[in-house]
Write a structure and sequence with these properties.
This protein has 345 residues and is an alpha+beta fold. Helix content is 28%, strand content 28%.
């Protein structure tokens, strides 16, 4: 198998344990680096996950429906509209899902898509049927922008679900970004694939990565048809990371209706796992070129998010923010085995 670039070494911490008569204790810490993503992380030998499901009423009280700009009657008064050259109606709509410009944009083409008029959709109700209109309206927008032939090359669909993941509003919503250049992380993936092809006589990094993970049987969750589901060797989150890769789909517009049906079904399985394990929040991103790029296969990531009790501390700290390394008490190989059960159902 061709070289992929997963590196691992072991560090040993020793101390006198106050909880065991000050006997000497050793703790093994795995230092991992993924050359594809550039992510370095430290896999710790203890598991951190929410012991109890957080109180959702706390968040609902902080973000009542009556003050939500995505709910009526405020929606039409407070949400921006597109200029008429993009869409005459001002917003894109599929069923009760609507997409409109972000009033506080991260980029020149940053939009918000509410999944429906429902103010709050709990994690266990994020079924394929529930989330489909939101993804459909994003697709409509991407197709319209491509139709306008403005030369954009990269796009993404992103999701901060609930406040622990950075969601500023309870009302579930996606965000889209379209640009001439990829975001920094997407550029890293693209550069890694280009360098790999140059070093390996034009072979596909993504094809070989999937083959490696399938053979290793450590982080390969499932293949659901056109999509391979993996846990990341070096996760970007404390609770691990779930990756999905579309086979040989080199543009967003290669994705068919069946591909999206498969994606939403897989996402719902992941959400079921999160709900069963007391998570209430996650980040998700789907990365894609808007024109075919043979080096890049459309793919995405899901990172469970949580607050650390009893103080409600963030799951991010100085290691992530200031040292560019992830502290991860979740062993990716264990996470994979747990998720496999949900994909077998």
């Amino acid at each position: 198998m061709k070289y992929i670039g997963f590196k691992k070494e072991i560090a040993t911490s020793r101390y006198l344990n106050a909880f065991n008569n000050f006997e000497e204790k050793e703790i093994k810490i795995e230092l991992r680096h993924d050359e594809i993503t550039g992510v370095s992380c430290r896999i710790l030998p203890y598991r951190v996950r929410p012991a109890h499901k957080p109180d959702l009423d706390f968040y609902l009280e902080k973000s009542p429906e009556s003050l939500c700009p995505f709910c009526s009657p405020l929606f039409e008064k407070t949400t921006p509209k597109f200029t008429a050259d993009i869409i005459a109606e001002g917003k894109f709509q599929r069923d009760s899902a609507q997409l409109f410009p972000n009033a506080f944009p991260y980029d020149a083409n940053n939009c918000v898509a509410i999944l429906s008029s429902r103010h709050f959709i709990p994690l266990e109700e994020l079924t394929p049927q529930t989330i489909k209109p939101g993804f459909d309206v994003c697709r409509d927008y991407f197709h319209r922008i491509a139709e306008m032939n403005l030369g954009y090359k990269f796009c993404s669909i992103n999701w901060n679900y609930m406040p622990p993941a950075g969601g500023g509003l309870i009302h579930p919503h996606l965000q889209t970004i379209i640009g001439h250049k990829p975001t920094d992380f997407m550029q890293r993936l693209l550069s890694s694939a280009q360098s790999y092809a140059a070093a390996e006589n034009g072979e596909s990094l993504w094809h070989n990565l999937i083959a490696l993970e399938k053979d290793a049987k450590e982080r390969f969750i499932a293949s659901t048809g056109a999509i391979t589901w993996l846990t990341s060797f070096a996760p970007k989150g404390m609770a691990g990371e779930i990756d999905f890769i579309f086979h040989e789909k080199t543009s967003f517009f290669d994705l068919t209706e069946a591909n999206f049906t498969e994606l939403l079904s897989g996402l719902a399985k992941v959400f079921s796992y999160l709900y069963a394990n007391n998570f209430i929040s996650f980040n998700m991103a789907l990365y894609a070129p808007m024109i075919n790029n043979r080096y890049f296969w459309v793919q995405g990531k899901i990172v469970p998010r949580f607050e650390v009790n009893p103080l409600g501390t963030s799951d991010l700290n100085y290691f992530e923010k200031l040292h560019n390394e992830i502290i991860c008490p979740t062993v990716p190989e264990e996470l994979c085995r747990e998720l496999q059960l949900y994909f077998k159902e």
